[in-house]
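Q: what sequence does this backbone want?
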């Protein structure tokens, strides 16, 4: 029997350690969090995408009375960038949540569906996308690629 193990490193930055460009991206995610439409969960998710050319596009979760139709903030931001700046490689996504249960001090990582969608953007642009999560204590958690959060992920290499 062979054994394989998978691990990854995550950087946790204090507010003063956050590079200016990522702080600006976090501020954009916080701004877009205000645009969340979440009357059912009351869980607000703001996201902001940074592209290679330095543009930033935001998104927030959009819910529906037919619950499975709810769309996550991360995907709204990614699709926003794909529409507004097609072909402009996505290099980072920042995510800021506000929970009805109060302050959250642990990183709320993208859901499985969003991980798969972020992976598609990594594959499409052939580059890593940094995932940046701000917790309510101001710390910033950095993951270098969605492949760390979705190891052995599905991709188009199995398709015609
Ligand atoms: N949500 C996101 O926007 N992103 C995630 O990664 C997880 C969940 C939203 C969907 C729904 O509107 C609310 O949070 C509760 O699940």
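A:
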């Amino acid at each position: 029997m062979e054994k394989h193990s998978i691990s990854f490193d995550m950087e946790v930055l204090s507010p003063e350690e956050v590079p200016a460009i990522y702080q600006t991206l976090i501020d954009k995610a916080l701004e877009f969090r205000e645009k969340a439409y979440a009357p059912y969960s009351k869980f607000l998710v703001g996201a902001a995408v940074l592209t290679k050319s330095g543009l930033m596009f935001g998104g927030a979760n959009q819910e529906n009375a037919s619950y499975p139709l709810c769309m996550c903030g991360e995907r709204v931001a990614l699709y926003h960038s794909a529409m507004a700046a097609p072909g402009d490689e996505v290099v980072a996504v920042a995510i800021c949540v506000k929970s009805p249960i109060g302050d959250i001090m642990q990183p709320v990582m993208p859901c499985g569906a969003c991980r798969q969608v972020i992976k598609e953007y990594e594959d499409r642009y052939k580059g890593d996308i940094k995932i940046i999560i701000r917790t309510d204590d101001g710390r910033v958690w950095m993951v270098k690629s969605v492949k760390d959060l979705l190891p052995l992920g599905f991709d188009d290499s199995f398709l015609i």
